[in-house]
Design brief:
Length: 190
């Protein structure tokens, strides 16, 4: 029985190490994923047997198992990007995202956002970022969270039809002198 118990203890260690390697592999595979937080494994001792040996009890473990896989929520490094829609969270917290087709709510620390075709600040998968409305006078957040629509709040540029000197803008007036000059240069070269 002692030999089988020792083999079982060893086997539990091998199984646990295999699962640990899966977690480590996931950490390595996602090292360049924006907003990814690494996982660490917490081990637990399987309750062992105890038997009397003289005045004391001797305890032997029955092996090891994974007690849990814990996510590391410590602050990562900030990176500067060229996009004004990229955001980061300092300290704890998550961005709340709602899928517009299913209304399912999820959370992320990945701050890579862009505007969708309707002007909502969205994730790369189309989830809309949620935010509280802000009173423009007091600066206080209030109400219930809703999708953050930024585009469409500013009037789209309208062509005036005139340049700064008051002349009418037309492709013919702008392009014709350039085309005539290029044609004259080609004729001179012939």
């Amino acid at each position: 029985m002692a030999l089988l118990g020792s083999l079982n203890t060893g086997a539990s260690g091998v199984k646990t190490q295999g699962k640990t390697m899966q977690v480590v592999g996931n950490n390595i595979a996602n090292v360049n994923t924006f907003g990814f937080k690494r996982n660490s494994v917490a081990f637990e001792d399987l309750m062992g047997n105890a038997w009397p040996q003289g005045a004391a009890f001797t305890k032997a473990s029955n092996g090891v198992k994974i007690g849990g896989v814990e996510m590391d929520y410590s602050q990562g490094a900030f990176e500067t990007t060229a996009l004004s829609t990229d955001l980061a969270i300092a300290g704890g917290g998550f961005f709340t995202v709602v899928n517009p087709s299913t209304n399912n709510e999820s959370y992320t620390r990945n701050g890579q956002f862009s505007y969708d075709k309707e002007g909502f600040l969205s994730t790369l998968r189309g989830g809309r970022i949620q935010a509280l409305k802000v009173d423009r006078v007091t600066g206080e957040s209030k109400g219930i969270p809703g999708a953050l629509q930024v585009l469409g709040l500013v009037d789209a540029p309208q062509p005036t039809g005139q340049d700064l000197k008051g002349r009418e803008l037309s492709l013919q007036r702008i392009l014709m002198p350039t085309l005539q000059s290029k044609m004259f240069q080609l004729i001179r070269l012939m």
